[in-house]
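Input C-alpha cells:
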C-alpha cells in the first residue's frame, strides 16, 4: 500500500515550493487533490515484454546517489514509551534488546540545520525496514522484504493525528509548534526548507507486524511469509574494532550476507539544491541515518506437509527431463543391501545408518557382517539462548546398535556428537520450495563405505542433474516454461555453509541411570546382537571446531532460531558418530531452535 500512497517520481517535477500549499475552506468535504499534491507521482518503465512496471522512489531509494550534506545533522533516538509533547522522554538503548512480533518501537528523529542558509529538501521519510543482503561475485544483491512508513513522522502537507487523544485539523500543518521541553520545532516549513539553526523533532511509533504480507513470497510459501531473525553483520557499517573483538556476536552466518532490521530516517533532495549541475536534474539522498534493531521472532507452527508441494514440483520437472533415476551402485553396496534386507534389519519410523562390518586379518580386511545404528524419527527442539545467558539446553538421544554377522562382537571405540548449523542462500532468485528433513538427510543410509550425505548431495546435486537435462532439452527444441527452468536453476545454484559445533561432556544413560558405554551389554534379539542406550548432553556446551579455546558454549556462539525465507534459510541437525572396531556409523537427527 505504501508504494501507491507515499511516493515521488524518480525525475523531479517543476513544483514551486515557495508557494504555500492549497487550503480548503469546507472541512466537511473531501478535497479533490491532484496527483502532485497527494505525492502519488510514479514513473512508468517498460520491461522486455512491453509490460508496464511502476517504479517509485521508495522502491529505488538504494539506487539514489548520496551527497551527504555536512551541514545537516540527523539523529534517531529510541524511547521506552510514546513520545509526548512537553514531557521528558524515557530514552532507551534499542541495540541492547531483542524484539519480536507485536513489540513497539517508539522514539523521535531530530533534524538540525547547522549552516547559515536554509537547506531545501523534497521529502523526509521515517521508515522501519527489513532487508536481506546476499554476497555475490559482483555487487551485493539487496532484497527489501519489509517497509513500514510512519506517516506522522515523515514530511507531508497534512497534519496526521498521532495519538488517540489528538483532535488535529488534517489540513493544518501546525506551523511554529514548539515542544516546550527542549525547544525543538515539531513542524517543518511547508515550503520544504530547513531553517538555519533550527532543530526539528518528529515522533515515530512502529508496531512490528506478526508476519509479512501474503504476496511477499511469489510462490505463496507460508514459512517465507514469517519474520526472520536478525542474522549476520553489515560489515560496511560496523567498525573494524568490533569485528575483531572477542565479545562480538557470532551467529555463524555467511560472510557479507545478512538479514537486518532498522529504523531509518532519510532526507531526499534535488541534486541542483546542492550545486550539482547536470543535463537532467535528479533526486539524491542528502542525509540518511540508520538505527539497527535485533529481531528474534516467536516461532510459527504449520500443520501442513511441505513435502507435498516439493514432490509435485519434482514430478513436473521429471516429466520434462525423464532422468535416469537409478544411481551407479558399487558391488559391495549391493551385497550390503542384500544382506541388510535378508536379515530384516529395516526399522520403520527410524533414522538408520547401515555399514558393512569389516574384520581385520593379517592380509587385510573382509566383511564379517552388517552393523546398523538407528534412532526414532522425531525433531528435537531446544530454546534459543540469548548471548551471554548461559542457559542449559539438555537433550537425550536414544540410540540402538544392531549387529548381524560372525561370532565377533563389535567394540565401541568412541562416540561423538556435533551440532551442525546449515545456512542456505540463493543469490538472485527466490527459493521455490520449503526445505524439509527429507532434503537434509536420508532416512536410511546403506553404504559400503563411510560417505558424506547432506543437503548438497541430496538436493543440490539432484537439481544440477535436472538443470543439465533441461538445458539439453532446450537445445533440442523442447519448449519449457521459463518459471520451471528458473526454479530448477535456483535450487541447483544454492550456496551452503556448514558449521560443525562439537558437543562436550557426553553422558550415556540406560534406564535413567548413567553408565559407562562398555558396561552396556550386547543382547541377543531375533538372531542379532543389539545394544540400546541414550546419549545425554547439554547443547549449550558447544565448541567451534578448529579455533582457539576462547570460543566455547552458547555464551560466545549464538544459534538464531530456525527459519526459512525467500533468499536465506537456517536449519540445524545433530550428527551422531559411533566408531567401532569394524565400522564407522554416522546418523543425522533433526534439531529445531525456537524462541
Amino acid at each position: 500500500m505504501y508504494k501507491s500512497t507515499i511516493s515521488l517520481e524518480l525525475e523531479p517535477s517543476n513544483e514551486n515550493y515557495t508557494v504555500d500549499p492549497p487550503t480548503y475552506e469546507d472541512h466537511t468535504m473531501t478535497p479533490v487533490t491532484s496527483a502532485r499534491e497527494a505525492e502519488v507521482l510514479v514513473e512508468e518503465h517498460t520491461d522486455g515484454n512491453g509490460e508496464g512496471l511502476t517504479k517509485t522512489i521508495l522502491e529505488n531509494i538504494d539506487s539514489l546517489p548520496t551527497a551527504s550534506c555536512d551541514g545537516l545533522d540527523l539523529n534517531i533516538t529510541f524511547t521506552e514509551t510514546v513520545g509526548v509533547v512537553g514531557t521528558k522522554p524515557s530514552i532507551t538503548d534499542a541495540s541492547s534488546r531483542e524484539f519480536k512480533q507485536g513489540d513497539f518501537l517508539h522514539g523521535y528523529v531530530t533534524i538540525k540545520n547547522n549552516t547559515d542558509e536554509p537547506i531545501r529538501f523534497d521529502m523526509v521519510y521515517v521508515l522501519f525496514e527489513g532487508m536481506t543482503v546476499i554476497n555475490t561475485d559482483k555487487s551485493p544483491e539487496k532484497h527489501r522484504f519489509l517497509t513500514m512508513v510512519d506517516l506522522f513522522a515523515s514530511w507531508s502537507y497534512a497534519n496526521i493525528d498521532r495519538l488517540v487523544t489528538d483532535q488535529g485539523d488534517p489540513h493544518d500543518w501546525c506551523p511554529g509548534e514548539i515542544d516546550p521541553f527542549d525547544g525543538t520545532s515539531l513542524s517543518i516549513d511547508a515550503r520544504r526548507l530547513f531553517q538555519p539553526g533550527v532543530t526539528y523533532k518528529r515522533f515515530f511509533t512502529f508496531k512490528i507486524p506478526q508476519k509479512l504480507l501474503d504476496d511477499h513470497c511469489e510462490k505463496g510459501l507460508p514459512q517465507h511469509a514469517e519474520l526472520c531473525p536478525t542474522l549476520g553483520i553489515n560489515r560496511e557499517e560496523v567498525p573494524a574494532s568490533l569485528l575483531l573483538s572477542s565479545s562480538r556476536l557470532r551467529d555463524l552466518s555467511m560472510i557479507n550476507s545478512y538479514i537486518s532490521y532498522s529504523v531509518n530516517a532519510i532526507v531526499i533532495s534535488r541534486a541542483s539544491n546542492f550545486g550539482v549541475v547536470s543535463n537532467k536534474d535528479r533526486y539524491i539522498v542528502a542525509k540518511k541515518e540508520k538505527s539497527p534493531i535485533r529481531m528474534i521472532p516467536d516461532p510459527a507452527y504449520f500443520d501442513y506437509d511441505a513435502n507435498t508441494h516439493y514432490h509435485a514440483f519434482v514430478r513436473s520437472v521429471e516429466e520434462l527431463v525423464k532422468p535416469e533415476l537409478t544411481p551407479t551402485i558399487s558391488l559391495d553396496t549391493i551385497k550390503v543391501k542384500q544382506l541388510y534386507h535378508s536379515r530384516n534389519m529395516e526399522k520403520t519410523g527410524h533414522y538408520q545408518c547401515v555399514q558393512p562390518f569389516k574384520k581385520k586379518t593379517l592380509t587385510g580386511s573382509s566383511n564379517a557382517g552388517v552393523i546398523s545404528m538407528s534412532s526414532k524419527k522425531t525433531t528435537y527442539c531446544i530454546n534459543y539462548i540469548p548471548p551471554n545467558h548461559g542457559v542449559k539446553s539438555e537433550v537425550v538421544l536414544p540410540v540402538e546398535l544392531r549387529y548381524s554377522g560372525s561370532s565377533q562382537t563389535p567394540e565401541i571405540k568412541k562416540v561423538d556428537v556435533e551440532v551442525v548449523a546449515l545456512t542456505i542462500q540463493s543469490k538472485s532468485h527466490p527459493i521455490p520450495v520449503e526445505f524439509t528433513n527429507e532434503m537434509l538427510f536420508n532416512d536410511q543410509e546403506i553404504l559400503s563405505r563411510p560417505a558424506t550425505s547432506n543437503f548438497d548431495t541430496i538436493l543440490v546435486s539432484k537439481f544440477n542433474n535436472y538443470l543439465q537435462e533441461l538445458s539439453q532439452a532446450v537445445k533440442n527444441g523442447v519448449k519449457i516454461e521459463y518459471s520451471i527452468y528458473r526454479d530448477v536453476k535456483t535450487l541447483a545454484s544454492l550456496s551452503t555453509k556448514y558449521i560443525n559445533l562439537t558437543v562436550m561432556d557426553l553422558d550415556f544413560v540406560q534406564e535413567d541411570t548413567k553408565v559407562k558405554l562398555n558396561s552396556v551389554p550386547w543382547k541377543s534379539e531375533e538372531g542379532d546382537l543389539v545394544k540400546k542406550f541414550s546419549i545425554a548432553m547439554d547443547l549449550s556446551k558447544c565448541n567451534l571446531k578448529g579455533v582457539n579455546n576462547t570460543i566455547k558454549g552458547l555464551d560466545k556462539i549464538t544459534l538464531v532460531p530456525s527459519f526459512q525465507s525467500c533468499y536465506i534459510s537456517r536449519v540445524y541437525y545433530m550428527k551422531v558418530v559411533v566408531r567401532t572396531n569394524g565400522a564407522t556409523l554416522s546418523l543425522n537427527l533433526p534439531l529445531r531452535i525456537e524462541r
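The radius of gyration is 30 Å. Residues 2-295 form a domain with the Immunoglobulin-like fold (CATH 2.60.40.640).
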